[in-house]
Design a protein that fits this description.
six-stranded mixed beta sheet, alpha/beta, 11 helices, 220 residues
């Protein structure tokens, strides 16, 4: 896995190559290393001219060793599809993430054995909605569920906060890089999750800012 890690990281940083295109490349070249190092002639059989041009330019300029060093400095863990810790259920969808970036301690998590349950909702809940969310998450926490949400304002924030209050593991899935706090008002919550036994996860490379279209991918 260590040998292939740089190639997964590189592909995940290349704009225009998402999970679907990555799947096509893997199917054609069989390994991520062969796909990344393929010649222009070989890549033409798989990629359209527009994406091909962007990829070749990207590959020539991208310094993956520098990126990996930055991740180490920021304490960001990378899970590729080849990593045994990569969630099996994600491997089985049609467009699994190329890799997952994680902030926090992964040691307490087993995505294939833990009981994970997503709690999401409106950013502007009523007082009743807030009350019910706290009650539901408190009960789920007591039953041993890992609470998963998106760290957005409203219901998401309440779900994470309640899980932390009950010393329950919680996972925040972001629509931006894991080193970016969005919304910024949730800095304290972000720190509490990362420092309190939870994790923050994203398929988007560190440093990538939030864009509306990214939330669709995040949600799936």
């Amino acid at each position: 896995m260590e040998k292939t890690l740089p190639y997964y990281v590189a592909f995940s940083h290349c704009l225009g190559i998402g999970p679907i295109t990555f799947n096509v490349l893997l199917k054609h070249f069989e390994t991520v290393e062969k796909a990344y190092n393929a010649t222009e002639k070989e890549l033409k059989k798989v990629l359209g001219s527009g994406i091909l041009g962007r990829f070749l330019k990207f590959r020539n300029a991208f310094n993956v060793e520098e990126k990996l060093y930055q991740f180490k400095e920021k304490k960001i863990t990378v899970l590729t599809r080849e990593d045994e810790r990569f969630p099996q259920q994600l491997r089985e969808i049609s467009d699994p993430p190329i890799c997952l970036y994680v902030k926090g301690n992964l040691d307490g998590f087993d995505f294939d054995k833990d009981y994970l349950l997503s709690v999401v909702g409106t950013r502007k809940p009523t007082s009743y909605g807030q009350q019910i969310t706290r009650k539901l998450v408190a009960g789920l926490s007591a039953a041993g569920f890992v609470i998963v949400s998106g760290m957005a304002m409203g219901i998401d924030t309440i779900a994470h906060q309640t899980a932390l209050e009950y010393d329950t593991k919680t996972v925040a899935i972001l629509g931006c890089g894991v080193d970016i706090v969005y919304p910024s008002i949730n800095q304290k919550l972000y720190d509490a999750i990362v420092g309190g036994g939870g994790i923050v996860v994203s398929e988007f490379p560190p440093g990538m800012a939030t864009l509306p279209g990214l939330f669709i991918a995040r949600n799936r």
